[in-house]
């Protein structure tokens, strides 16, 4: 369908399913084991209800915000998703260029199809970029990569901590890996590619399962970028991240692709925020809490913000947008979200992001806490 008939982020998924190769669809859409967690990521948002306030003069509403010191036109960033060229020949550059035009922040994946430098070269001067990091068994490779990113102006390092081993995504595993040029180029020292177990497993054997809390000071010693742990699920680990001197965490289950039946980030948010409040001021200017997983509507984002998130990550929504329509698809996705923010914030009675407060949601049905 023509792009102007796309009315919401779900529509991109329907189109992507028809235009992607079976291999790409399997890699992008799959989640681990019985795919319970990916279902819950969506379902959790539907258990939170709004408590809209009225008569607040909502003539002008502003949903722009600041994410880790960077301006963002939306309280949303593009979360890292690997292998963009499986979906579109321009791969991740679709996101970079659309993000530049719309003032949105992209998190570059370690396993991007385009090289890191190609992506940074495609960005505008001063366009804020984040980097997602998979930590290599060879720390020298990781150190070079991180320091190169900092030199090229990346603002924050999101270390993925929920993937010491990649989950079993069985839809993907049924597809054989063929090196057709979409693969990630950045990881040298990756010799033992297993080609009979799907895309994900073929590209991930370099990831170091020995990564531990002891490594955090080492990261701090090699970079001045903000350090965020991506894939935190419990108050215990949120506190450890805070005490380790990280600048934030992402409550994420990797889009349901790692430990199946892990709870959704949204469900974990209330307890984690409560735990962090015992440790310092709230909102804490030095420690941000992000959420991702299942976000497809501005209303989802507003629920997470009301419950204490600084901003929210979207993976598949944008991935399906560029797979279907390239850069223009991503731009359309941003415009759709913009329209949804305007309407939802007016109807909610919040004129800016600071006015999206806990009292604006009823989360009593979300989960036991
Ligand atoms: C991901 N995600 C991911 N995360 C990460 O830290 N490193 C990675 O390489 C990838 N790759 C990746 C590929 C694909 C195809 C998907 C769908 C996801 C997880 C991603 O950053 C984010 O946590 C989820 O995508 C959020 O859930 P939604 O928005 O896809 O529902």
Automatic annotation (TrEMBL):
Reactions performed catalytically: (S)-lactate + 2 Fe(III)-[cytochrome c] = 2 Fe(II)-[cytochrome c] + pyruvate + 2 H(+)
CC annotations in GO: mitochondrial intermembrane space
Compartments reported by the entry: Mitochondrion intermembrane space
Organism superkingdom: Eukaryota
Subunit structure: Homotetramer.
Family: In the N-terminal section; belongs to the cytochrome b5 family.
EC supergroup of this enzyme: oxidoreductase
Primary location: mitochondrion
Protein keywords: Flavoprotein, FMN, Heme, Iron, Metal-binding, Mitochondrion, Oxidoreductase, Transit peptide, Transport
GO MF term list: heme binding; L-lactate dehydrogenase (cytochrome) activity; metal ion binding
Keyword Mitochondrion attached: yes
Domain FMN hydroxy acid dehydrogenase intervals: 1-366
EC number: 1.1.2.3
Needed co-factor(s): FMN; heme b
Protein name: L-lactate dehydrogenase (cytochrome)
GO biological process terms on file: lactate metabolic process
Source organism phylogeny: Eukaryota, Fungi, Dikarya, Basidiomycota, Agaricomycotina
């Amino acid at each position: 369908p023509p792009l102007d008939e796309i009315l919401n982020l779900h529509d991109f998924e329907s189109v992507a399913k028809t235009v992607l190769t079976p291999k790409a669809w399997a890699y992008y859409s799959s989640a681990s084991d019985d795919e319970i967690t990916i279902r819950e990521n969506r379902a959790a948002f539907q258990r939170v209800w709004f408590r809209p306030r009225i008569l607040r003069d909502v003539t002008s509403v502003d949903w722009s915000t600041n994410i880790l010191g960077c301006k963002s036109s939306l309280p949303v960033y593009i979360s890292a998703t690997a292998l963009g060229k499986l979906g579109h020949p321009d791969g991740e550059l679709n996101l970079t260029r659309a993000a530049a035009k719309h003032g949105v922040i992209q998190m570059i994946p370690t396993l991007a199809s385009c090289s890191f430098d190609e992506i940074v070269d495609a960005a505008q001067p001063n366009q804020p970029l984040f980097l997602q990091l998979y930590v290599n068994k060879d720390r020298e490779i990781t150190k070079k990569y991180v320091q190169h990113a900092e030199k090229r102006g990346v603002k924050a390092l999101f270390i993925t901590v929920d993937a010491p081993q990649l989950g079993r995504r069985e839809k993907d595993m049924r597809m054989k890996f063929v090196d057709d040029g979409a693969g990630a180029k950045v990881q040298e020292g990756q010799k033992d590619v297993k080609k009979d177990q799907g895309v994900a497993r073929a590209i991930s054997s370099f990831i170091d399962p020995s990564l531990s809390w002891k490594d955090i000071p080492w990261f701090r010693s090699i970079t001045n970028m903000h350090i965020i742990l991506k894939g935190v699920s419990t108050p215990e680990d949120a506190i450890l991240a805070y005490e380790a001197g990280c600048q934030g965490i992402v409550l994420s289950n990797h889009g349901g692709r790692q430990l199946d039946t892990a709870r959704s980030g949204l469900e974990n948010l209330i307890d984690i925020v409560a735990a962090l409040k015992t440790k310092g001021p709230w909102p804490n200017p030095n420690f941000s809490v992000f959420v991702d997983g299942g976000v497809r509507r501005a209303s989802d984002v507003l629920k997470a913000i009301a419950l204490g998130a600084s901003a929210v990550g979207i993976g598949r929504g944008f991935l399906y947008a560029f797979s279907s329509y390239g850069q223009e698809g991503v731009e359309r996705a941003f415009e759709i979200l913009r329209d949804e923010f305007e309407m939802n914030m007016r109807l909610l009675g919040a004129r800016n992001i600071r006015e999206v407060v806990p009292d604006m949601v009823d989360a009593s049905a979300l989960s036991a806490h």
